[in-house]
Amino acid sequence: MPVNTLTQQDVWEAKKRISPSAANTPLIYAPELSDRTGATIHLKLENLNESGSFKIRGATNKIFSLSAEQKEKGVTTFSTGNFGVSVAIVASKLGIKAIICISQRVPKAKVDALKRTGAKVEIVGESQDDAEKYCYQLEQEHGLTVVHPFDDPYIIAGQGTIGLELLEELPEVDTVIGGLSGGGLHAGLGAALKPANAGIRVIGVSTDRGAAMYESINAGKPVTVEEQDTLADSLLGGIGLNNQYTFHMVQQYVDTILRLHEEGFASGMTYMLEKHRMAVEGAAAAGVGAILHERVRPGSHAVIVISGSSVDPATIFSLTQDGKL
């Protein structure tokens, strides 16, 4: 794949590569949200993937593309949780050694999920940037291949297969909304959707407690931000000062980026539990929360990407105790 280029054809190739392992996820109608907005709103249930998140798509596409020598030496990645689980699952199926680097901010539910995969877990520092540094140290010292969680064309193309499924299942889609962090999801969605219909709006929802991509787009270049605790922990993490793909692709493809407050994530999470009987993490509820708090106006046919299910039961209990349900 040529450096710094990614086309819809790359996404189609990813779809072919991962289809035997990463099945299409359900697209369901959301009656309450549709009634509230006057639009037709569907939910793309990426939380039902084997790994619990959409990131299994990119991880599968990348790891399946590695050489025999790379697979023999093993892989490593840095993650806020979900991508690490996805890499660990794919690596396990192929018999590949995997070391997952995470920071101390990763919630217990995600740490436990990582440990259940059998992969080696290294907890390093206070941020994803700290985990990333250690990850590249492992590459230098042990020859492991770093599987970047977002800024990689194979990862982006894998996440973009969501967009191809939307075009097949809901050709009239005019708005796609999802939580925005490093940009792998939105870069992939843009590469898949915009060539088919440049009028489709791609909307990113970020946390207001450390939105690296949001701040970088506003600055016109990648910048670092301080991470803070948030219900949407999957949306934390830097985009890399030497970002090669997602920063420019988000600039090109994403029509709107907004920051959502904690109440918005909480509302989205409790809404999904009450109306759809699904416990999802804050990042996955970002689009729902943005609509509930009228931060975004959906088009006539909107899709919200429910990106993952890795939430600690204690967090759900806390929300219900606070009277959110």
How does this structure look, described?
45% of the residues lie in helices and 14% in strands. It is of the alpha/beta class and 325 residues long. The chain folds into two domains: 8-53 and 152-321, 3-Layer(aba) Sandwich (Rossmann fold), CATH 3.40.50; 56-146, Rossmann fold, CATH 3.40.50. The chain has helices at residues 8-18, 31-37, 55-64, 68-73, 82-94, 108-116, 128-142, 153-169, 184-193, 212-219, 246-253, 262-276, 286-292, 313-321, and strands spanning 27-29, 40-45, 75-78, 98-102, 120-123, 145-146, 175-179, 201-207, 256-260, 301-306. The chain is globular. The model has no long low-confidence stretch (mean pLDDT 93). It starts with 7 loop residues before the first helix and ends with a helix. It has a six-stranded mixed β-sheet with strand order 1-2-10-7-8-9, with helices on both faces. Strands 5-4-3-6 form a four-stranded parallel β-sheet, with helices on both faces. The longest helix is centred in the middle third of the chain and has 17 residues, at 153-169. It is built from 14 helices and ten strands.
